[in-house]
């Protein structure tokens, strides 16, 4: 199987640069994975697509405002930090731009001194290990000074940080949003509950690797990045009960899917678990946990479109994507949604 097997032609103007005013008014393409049949709806119709007794699984990770702009101490040279992983208290792995000359001992200042940083070491891929200095609580300082690390295909500045968070975001740690969840509103979630649909939560902290292109021709040779996940006991129990009663498990997004399928590698019933996952799901891989998927429209030749194709079939998915282009759907993070039933 070749990476080029997952290519489709996407006009640049269909890449959504900002979210809609109302989250749940985005368009929703409904794809029957068995027949390939397509329907055109709006996201608020999702409540009619799910049966009482089914279970919706959401990823409650929270995006860190991880992009910082500052200056080098002494020279005043401009610098951009992008926080990747927390190594220990106040010590982070970061990407620097420009970073070639930033050696251990170099110091940087952000927000007129509200935040300072010193480079400790040069590590993986030229990234830096950095120790931060500040007064108060780091998350509060970051919330004040940091910007959302929007994907590279979004070039317009985001005015409201909360629009790159799901309304149920809880545990900080992601470098990118689980974007399928951006369409939900508190009111829509209440309608879903009132219908008798269960809602459960997992956590997967999305890494920047989610935007890395597949650079090998042979799909089998691609190596996924690792991300930290948590499947709580109450969610595992909810999924097990749902399956035992003959109802469906609907995953919201590829991140929740990767969490559930990692936990389900040894089959059912699920057990609570946590750790790092580098699971790569592409056509030919079996799904042990999820039955249906709510997702956005993904990049050509990406691991995300490969995961979607594993569930619904490559031909069905590519036909659906070409149909989305013809019907001027909005693509990627702030774009429209697809429900694979």
What do these coordinates show?
- With 341 residues, the chain is an alpha/beta fold.
- It has 2 domains: 3-63 and 160-340, QueA-like, CATH 3.40.1780; 70-145, QueA-like (Thrombin, subunit H, Beta Barrel), CATH 2.40.10.
- It contains 7 helices and 17 strands.
- The chain has helices spanning 46-49, 138-145, 186-194, 233-244, 254-263, 303-312, 314-326, and strands spanning 27-31, 38-42, 55-59, 61-63, 67-72, 78-88, 91-97, 107-110, 115-122, 128-134, 171-174, 198-204, 227-231, 249-252, 273-277, 292-296, 337-340.
- It has a 9-stranded mixed β-sheet.
- Strand 1 and strand 2 form a beta hairpin.
- Helix 6 (303-312) packs across helix 7.
- The radius of gyration is 21 Å and the shape is globular.
């Amino acid at each position: 199987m070749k990476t080029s097997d997952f290519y489709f032609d996407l006009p640049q103007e269909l890449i959504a640069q900002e979210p809609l005013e109302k989250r749940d008014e985005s368009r929703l393409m409904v794809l029957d994975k068995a027949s390939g049949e397509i329907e055109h709806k709006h996201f608020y119709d999702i409540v009619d697509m799910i049966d009482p007794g089914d279970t919706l699984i959401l990823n409650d990770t929270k995006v860190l405002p991880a992009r910082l702009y500052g200056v080098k101490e002494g020279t005043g040279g401009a610098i951009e930090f992008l926080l990747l992983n927390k190594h220990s208290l106040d010590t982070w792995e970061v990407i620097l731009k420009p970073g070639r000359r930033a050696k251990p001992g170099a110091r940087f200042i952000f927000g007129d001194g509200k935040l300072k940083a010193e480079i400790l070491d040069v590590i993986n891929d030229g990234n830096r290990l950095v120790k931060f200095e500040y007064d108060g609580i780091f998350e509060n300082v970051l919330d004040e000074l940091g910007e959302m690390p929007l994907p590279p295909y979004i070039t317009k500045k985001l005015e409201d940080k909360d629009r790159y968070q799901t309304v149920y975001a809880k545990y900080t740690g992601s470098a990118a949003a689980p974007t399928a969840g951006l369409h939900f509103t508190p009111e829509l979630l209440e309608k879903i509950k009132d219908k008798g649909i269960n809602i459960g939560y997992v956590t997967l902290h999305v890494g920047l690797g989610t935007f890395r292109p597949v650079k090998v021709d042979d799909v089998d040779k691609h190596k996924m990045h690792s991300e930290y996940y948590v499947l709580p006991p109450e969610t595992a129990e909810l999924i097990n009960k749902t399956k035992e009663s003959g109802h469906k498990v609907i995953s919201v997004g590829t991140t929740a899917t990767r969490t559930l399928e990692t936990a389900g590698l040894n089959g059912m019933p699920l057990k609570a678990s946590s750790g790092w996952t580098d699971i790569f799901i592409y056509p030919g891989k079996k799904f042990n946990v999820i039955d249906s998927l709510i997702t956005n429209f993904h990049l050509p030749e990406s691991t995300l479109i490969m995961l979607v194709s594993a569930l619904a079939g490559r031909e069905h998915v590519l036909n659906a994507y070409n149909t989305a282009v013809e019907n001027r759907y909005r693509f990627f993070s702030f774009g429209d949604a697809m429900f694979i039933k």
